[in-house]
Structures are given as C-alpha cells and as structure tokens.
Design brief:
This protein is of the alpha+beta class and about 450 residues long. It contains 15 helices and 20 strands. The strands form 6 sheets. It has a 6-stranded mixed beta sheet with strand order 11-12-13-16-17-20, sandwiched between helices. The longest helix has 18 residues. It comes from Algoriphagus kandeliae.
C-alpha cells in the first residue's frame, strides 16, 4: 500500500518540495515583498492581463491580512498564491501545497467525497465516493454548506493561475475539487450539499471521506503521461505522452511507433494530445517531423526577457556553453530580445506518415501540447478534433522557477512570449476543426468515439 500511495502522490510531491513548517510574520512579509519585486524584475510582462494599479491593490490587501505572529506553510502558500494568480498568467504560479496536503493525509485527514467536472457553467458530479447512491453522476451541485457554488469558487480561484475562467476551471479539474476545497476551507467532517434534479433542488447531508483510503486510492489523475500505440478499425491511435523525460527513450518510442504504423498501412492516424501537461519543443517537433511534408517551426515569434534571477537559475541548472543559454547570460538584465529557433526538416518520405492525420485536444491539453496542436493546425499537417484548449497557443510561458529566500516556497514564472505559427495573438485556445465535447471524468471517450464515427462515415 505504501508504494501505491507514493505513486499516487508523486504528482503532488512535484508541486511542492518543502515540509510543513511555521514562519514568523516578519519572514513572511519579507518574502511577500521579495515576491512582488522579483515578479516585476523577472516576468516577461507582468501586466499583460491586469493593470499595475489592480495588481498592487490586491497585493496591499493580501499584505494587510497578515496579522498573526506565525503562519504555517499552507497559510503562506495560499497567501502568496493570491498575489501571483492576480497576474492572470497560467505559467506564473505558486504550486499547490502538496507537502502540507500529504502531511494532512497521513495524519488521518478527510476530504469532500465527490469529484467534480465543470461544464457549461455548472459543477457536475463525475465521481461519487460517498455512501449515498442518490447522488447521481451528472447531477449539478448548487451549494455546499449553505454557500452558493459561484461564491465558493471565488474563494478557490486565488489559488489558481490562469488567463481566464475557462482555464481556471480546467485547472480546478486537474488538481481536483476535494483537494482545493480542503485548501480553501480546511477539514469539514460533514457537508450539506444542494443538488438540482429535474429542475428541483434537493438537500443531502454527507460525511467526509479519508484522504488516502477512500479518495486518493480510488481516483485517477486527469493528466496522463503514458505512451501508447494501438490500431482501431482503419486507424492507428498514437498517444505520445507528455513532451518530457528521457528524450532518447521518447524518440525510440516515436520511431518504433511509426515503423509499426507504416507496416499496417492504415489510411488514418490519430494523435492524442488530450490530458497532456506539455513539456519541451524538442520532443514535440520530433513527433511533428513524422507527419510534416515541409520544413517547419513551432512558433512564428519567440522573445525572452533576461534578469539576474534568470541568469542565476541558468548558471545553476544548464549548460552555459549552449547558444540559447549564452544569449540569456550576455543580454543586459531586464532586456527583451528575440530568439529564432532553427527550422526543422520532416523525416525522409519513406519514414513519415502520408495518410489522413487527426489530432485530439481538450481543455486539459496544456502548454506545449496546445502550442503543438496549433503548430500542426497552422501548417495544415492534420485536422484538430475535440474541444478548445484551456491554454493559449500564443502565450507568456517558457517557465522556470526560483525559491523565496525565507520560506523556500517555489515560484514559477514566464520568461518568454510565444506566438503561434500563423502569427495570431488572439487570447483564445486552440479551436478544433471538428468540435466534440469531452466529459472528462466519465467512462466514455466522446472525442475518440466521435472521431471514429466521423472517419467511418467518410469511407
């Protein structure tokens, strides 16, 4: 059981690597000030989605709320998230307090017993781990503990960095409502929930459930890093996984997959970028090289802002003889400069796929997976199928991290601005060519099944 729990919690460990501590008020105030100054110094464009006045007004409100003599890691993280999330940039964030949650879990903590999905402005039950079978999958929750759901969300939103509400709700699904409800409201032993059924409101009393045995052991994370190749009807289905990890291992998987696809000689290829956390362009470009029929780039414009904080990060973590990182180090602090990535060539004709290609996306296609879907769409290499991505394909990203000096809390920040291949800077996700709604937490695969039906109707 211990091994299984470590696997389940591995995602949370990556979100926060410090333990649960207590910090003096002065330490917290100093880190709060450092957070503000470092964001000003190092972020590519802190005020892209909010005015400086509104950002500072929120900062002062958070600062004035710090009145206690000491604060826990959980309290400090929540306060600092409320500052950084105001920038409304999904790649500028302080991660979920995973270590505090894990400590809470191992101490016998409990959580809300329902997993939720957010569709059409409604909070819908997607998994029910309570003992009440009347709480049906798909039912809408309108309030919890006499708090209307839209008001409840206002308490959770400050923990989530995102450009818009659509993406905030996608992140809430990703990190899970029970975890974030706990962060916002602490442990609740019972919940009074109001459900809308057939136009009528019904109220239920339900107890909380144990974090480990009843919740984490029974659920699956939304994101999926597994790599997979299978053949469905007249199509190859390829799931490349996240664009990270061991690059040689990744390339070997892509190479062997396309060898098998060529052997089968199927007329359709489906590439699944749903529930994908993104990663590095060198991974995604290698995948794209197998479906491209001409040289390509992954962006039309890429600019970076360098700073003393970024330079320290580079010296500590990267090869400073690499041209990309040399540019970071040689430019003056605070300067913004362009960087042009070299054009990539497609694979030789005898290796690449030449049939119909479809790429699946959904609101959980994050970061580089959204950028890659846009790249493929803009070059016309494939048809995009699914729902709009939460992340923008033209975005402030190229994320890196640094730690606050007193608390050690990790700050993730955007150093670059990426413009999609077609040059559009519109504040929107990747819009699919064929729209199919994805109900993330049920057992049906509406997008894949819908695409297969579409393909069969064309034949």
């Amino acid at each position: 059981m211990k091994t299984t729990i470590l696997i389940i919690f591995s995602f949370l460990f990556t979100l926060a690597s410090f333990g649960q501590k207590k910090f003096a008020q002065q330490e917290v105030l100093e880190d709060l000030q450092y957070l503000r100054e470092s964001l000003e110094e190092a972020h590519y464009n802190l005020y892209a989605y909010i005015t400086e006045e509104a950002f500072n007004r929120n900062f002062e409100a958070v600062k004035s709320s710090i009145t206690q003599d000491s604060l826990s890691t959980l309290e400090v993280t929540s306060l600092f998230q409320a500052v950084i999330s105001k920038a409304n940039n999904g790649h500028t964030e302080i991660p979920f307090p995973g270590s505090a949650y894990i400590d809470y879990a191992y101490s016998g903590g409990t959580v809300f017993p329902l997993e939720l999905a957010f569709e059409n402005g409604k909070a819908l039950i997607r998994k029910n781990w309570s003992e009440n079978p009347e709480l049906e999958i798909g039912a809408e929750i309108t309030s919890i503990n006499n708090q209307p759901f839209h008001e409840l969300l206002q308490k959770i939103y400050p923990f989530l960095s995102a450009e818009r509400r659509y993406f905030k709700l996608a992140k809430l699904e990703l990190f899970s409502f029970p975890r974030l409800y706990w962060q916002a409201f602490g442990e609740q032993k019972t919940f009074e929930i109001e459900i809308k059924k057939d136009g009528n409101l019904e109220t239920y009393q339900i107890p909380s459930i144990r974090v480990i045995e009843d919740y984490e052991m029974n659920r699956n994370e939304i994101f999926s890093g597994e790599r997979e190749l299978q053949f469905v009807h007249q199509s190859a289905y390829l799931k490349p996984g996240n664009f990270g990890g061991d690059e040689q291992e990744y390339r070997s998987f892509i190479d062997s997959s396309f060898v098998e696809i060529k052997k089968k000689n199927v007329p359709n290829l489906i590439i699944d970028l749903r529930n994908n956390l993104g990663g590095d362009d060198s991974f995604s470009d290698y995948l794209v090289s197998y479906i491209a029929d001409k040289p390509f780039r992954w962006n039309s414009e890429f600019t970076l802002k360098t700073s003393a904080i970024l330079k320290a990060h580079v010296r500590e973590n990267y090869d400073t003889t690499d041209v990309y990182w040399q540019n970071v180090l040689t430019h003056e602090d605070g300067s913004i400069y362009p960087y042009e990535f070299p054009e990539k060539d497609p694979q030789p004709a005898e290796k690449r796929y030449s049939g119909e290609v479809y790429v699946l996306v959904n609101r959980q296609s994050h970061s580089q997976s959204a950028v890659t879907a846009a790249q493929i769409q803009d070059y016309g290499f494939a048809t995009i199928v699914g729902e709009e991505t939460g992340d923008f394909p033209s975005l402030y990203a190229s994320q890196y991290s640094y730690a606050l000096p007193n608390t050690g809390i990790e700050v993730k920040i955007s150093k670059g601005y990426i413009v999609r291949v077609n040059g559009s800077k519109k504040a929107e996700g990747v819009i699919p060519d064929i729209y199919i709604k994805d109900h993330l937490l049920d057992e049906d695969d509406e997008i894949l099944d819908g695409l297969i039906k579409h393909i069969e109707q064309k034949q």
